[in-house]
Amino acid sequence: MAxxxxxxxxxxxxxxxxxxxxxxxxxxxxxxxxxxxxxxxVRVDRPGGAGLxxxxxxxxTNRNKRSVVLDLKSPEGRAGVLGLVARAxxxxxxxxxxxAERLGVGPEACHARNPRLVYGRMTGWxxxxxxxxxxxxxxxxxxxxxxxxxxxxxxxxxxxxxNLLGDYAGGxxxxxxxxxxxxxxxxxxxxxxxxxxxxxxxxxxxxxMIHGMLAAGAWQDRRGSNLLDGGCPYYGxxxxxxxxxxxxGALERRFYDxxxxxxxxxxxxxxxxADLTRWGExxxxxxxxxxxxxxxxxxxxxxxxxxxxxxxxxxxxAPHHPHLAARGxxxxxxxxxxxxxxxxxxxxxxxxxxxxxxxxxxxAEVARDWDLPADA
Length: 376
What we know:
13 helices
């Protein structure tokens, strides 16, 4: 049983044991989310480390976890992983297809040790298809799904949304949904299964509403031309006098009317919001008004309104926004400002319990808490 100091004592997934085979990007983020929700996540780091050169002490995607170091290329390391698997509910890996099998920790080997195991696989291209064995990163995955092509101005290249859309939204979150669904099935039936979470699949799935609008003729298949992609003059971002930006999302008529009044648009533009032929004229007027004051001044103008306008903040500014500060959307732990766990639960609250797990720091306590044999 886990001790009071052991990760996994708080949150709705308390008691769930997860083995994470170390990787980068969406796999670690998915495991962090499970850990934030209370699961006891043991990350299996490889000797020498892996990743993109981030200081392990500051890699918050490894918070609320514990770490052991095992060499999966050695018989001892493989046996160690299978020992953990025998006691786990979930395993997460993000290797290219076939790699886990070659290392002796693929689904067949793991299910032989634990038939109830949920085996979560995180890849960009998926476990099959012509590109399955190829390398890739977030930008390529979202490019082929049509998602990247929707983002940005119509007269320039697509805007790159960091790695949030593919790796984390289309990848990590879909893996977690799949793992939790399969875990429910395993507890009902006693049978584990493989969850094939591909970033291309998840990102394509995120576009379901847009595909429906496209089929209905309510979406043009080019960026910067639609209601939600910056084509609409009252749904976008505008520069202010100090070179900052304000975000506008005044779609519904009552919100738009309040927006137009507070922005003090010329009366001659009263019907322009509903006339696509006048959208260019309206955009120029909105841009000119925003350019007349600073971001701070416009923030004050729209404060307390239903005009659906907000300041565009930087990463360092965001934790100090009054609403986010009041909710505790960000938290400080170990000197690192970071997003607090989400979502929130009334009966099983979550928290950042521990800082990033340093490679190999928890071998002894994991062996104790998971009741591993001495030679594992």
